């Protein structure tokens, strides 16, 4: 059984340039791992958290959360001003991901363009991104002849999102360019608190990095945060 940790992210809209590359994109990402790969991530992040607790005073039960780590909020407020050290912690977390051998599947849709193209028929951007992400996950599972257990971060409309995937399985295919029966996706989803699962925290960090990097114009002068993002990609 493959383990799929699923999270979502939405990059901010740029009102001056509504179609600016990387902005107003709704992402759904999946960390796809075997149980052995998930154990590497669990042990690695657990050890990393213990290190940063002793060295910087980050709470022992802190959640690895991309936005909070970069903006020094909540569990990570004690890191304010320590830009190089914070970037180093993020880089160490991404190294754990690479060393685990787990895979990332990330799909996104530009919210404004989706609504402009389909108007009143436009689907919820979360639904679109989740569908496209799980189509790819199902394809990988088919190739490996394995099933997938979904663990997703809690969202407000989780019943609707899960129900749509179940509907696609019932009728035998999804909509769009790459129809799939999603037969390898096991129902129901497990909706979890990300604070309790390192897999959800890892996909959150990866998604944050992806979304932040996509909106950086490297031709312009970069601030310290953007430099750190490009170094951690």
Account of the protein in words:
There is one protein chain. It is built from eight helices and five strands. It has helices at about 35-55, 65-70, 85-100, 110-120, 125-145, 160-170, 200-215, 225-230; strands at about 1-10, 25-35, 105-110, 150-155, 185-190. The model has no long low-confidence stretch (mean pLDDT about 85).
List its traits.
233 residues
- How many strands appear in the DSSP assignment? 5
* Gyration radius, in Å: 18 Å
User: What would the average pLDDT be, to the nearest integer?
Assistant: 87
Shape: globular
Q: How is the biggest beta sheet arranged? A: 5 strands, mixed
Strand content: 15-25%
> Helix fraction?
40-55%
Order of helices and strands: EEHHHEHHEHEHH
Strand order of the largest sheet: 3-2-1-4-5
Taking the alpha carbons of the first and last residues, their distance comes to 29 Å
By DSSP (H or I, 4+ residues per run), the number of helices equals: 8
The stretches of 5 or more residues where confidence is low (pLDDT under 50) are: none
User: Based on helices, strands and strand pairing, what is the structural class?
Assistant: alpha/beta
List the helices and strands and how they pair.
Elements: E1 2-10, E2 25-33, H1 35-56, H2 66-71, H3 83-100, E3 103-110, H4 111-118, H5 125-144, E4 148-153, H6 158-171, E5 185-192, H7 198-214, H8 224-232
A few lines on this structure:
With about 230 residues, this protein is of the alpha/beta class.
